[in-house]
């Protein structure tokens, strides 16, 4: 038998085999990378679902500050006898004639028989020797009922505290406060401030 020559594939066939092998290895590497990416993504999602990962949500911005307590408008004093009422605080009036003139504040409280009501306020005038009268009275159906009045002579232009008390007579009647410059007093501008009305039971003395 003759010798069988050694066979070597042509160069172009050998090159084709090497290219097919390289492509197969490259495809396997891509699969491995894709599998690793899937595994990592799964781990991150599971960790977030279990609450063990991820950044905390941003804090909620604070709301507007609570509003502070509001103060209502000053009480509306009414003119008596044609007096000119001061438009700003403190309350006050200026007489426009020689008669009794002043201001009144209606419905400062509601009357109950057997209770003692005490009104306390401060007054001052721009003329020395001014006489003012402060009255705490009951009003019902537009009529003036029981009342108590005190007078005060203002020696200078400083503030003077005045107190007047009244025992309730008619149930449900409105209590009003009046500050009047009576006829004969020097014509002066009068200011009123710090009005307070307090109710308390009257003192009864037993017979025993």
Task: Considering the chains and any ligands shown, give keywords for the structure.
1 helix, five-stranded antiparallel beta sheet, 2 domains, 39% strand, 208 residues, alpha+beta, single chain, elongated, Jelly Rolls
Task: Tell me what the structure shows.
The chain is of the alpha+beta class and 208 residues long. The chain has two domains: 10-54; 78-201, Jelly Rolls. It is built from one helix and ten strands, in the order αββββββββββ. It has one helix at 11-49, and strands at 78-80, 84-85, 91-94, 101-110, 115-125, 130-140, 143-154, 160-167, 174-181, 190-201. The strands form two sheets. Strands 1-4-9-6-7 form a five-stranded antiparallel sheet, with no helix packed on it. A hairpin with a 2-residue loop joins strand 6 (130-140) and strand 7. 19% of the residues are buried.
Distance between the termini: 162 Å
Total strand segments = 10
Based on Cα principal axes, name the global outline.
Answer: elongated
Give the uncertain stretches in residue-range form.
1-18, 63-71
Taking the sheet with the most strands, its summary is: 5 strands, antiparallel
Total tally of structural domains: 2
CATH architecture of the largest domain: Sandwich
Q: Round the Cα radius of gyration to an integer and report it.
A: 49 Å
């Amino acid at each position: 038998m003759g010798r069988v020559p050694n066979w070597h594939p042509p160069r172009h066939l050998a090159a084709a085999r090497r290219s097919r092998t390289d492509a197969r290895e490259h495809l396997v590497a891509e699969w491995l990378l894709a599998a690793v990416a899937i595994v990592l993504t799964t781990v991150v999602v599971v960790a977030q679902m279990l609450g063990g990962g991820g950044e905390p949500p941003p804090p909620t911005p604070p709301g507007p500050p609570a509003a502070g307590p509001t103060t209502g408008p000053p009480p509306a004093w009414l003119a008596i006898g044609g007096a000119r009422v001061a438009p700003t605080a403190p309350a006050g009036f200026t007489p426009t004639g020689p008669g009794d003139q002043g201001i009144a504040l209606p419905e400062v409280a509601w009357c109950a028989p057997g209770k003692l009501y005490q009104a306390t306020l401060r007054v001052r005038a721009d003329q020395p020797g001014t006489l003012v009268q402060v009255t705490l009275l009951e009003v019902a159906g537009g009529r003036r009922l029981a009342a108590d009045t005190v007078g005060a002579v203002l020696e200078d232009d400083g503030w003077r505290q005045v107190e007047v008390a009244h025992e309730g007579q008619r149930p449900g009647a409105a209590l009003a406060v009046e500050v009047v410059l009576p006829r004969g007093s020097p014509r002066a501008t009068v200011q009123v401030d710090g009005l307070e009305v307090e109710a308390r039971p009257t003192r009864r003395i037993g017979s025993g």
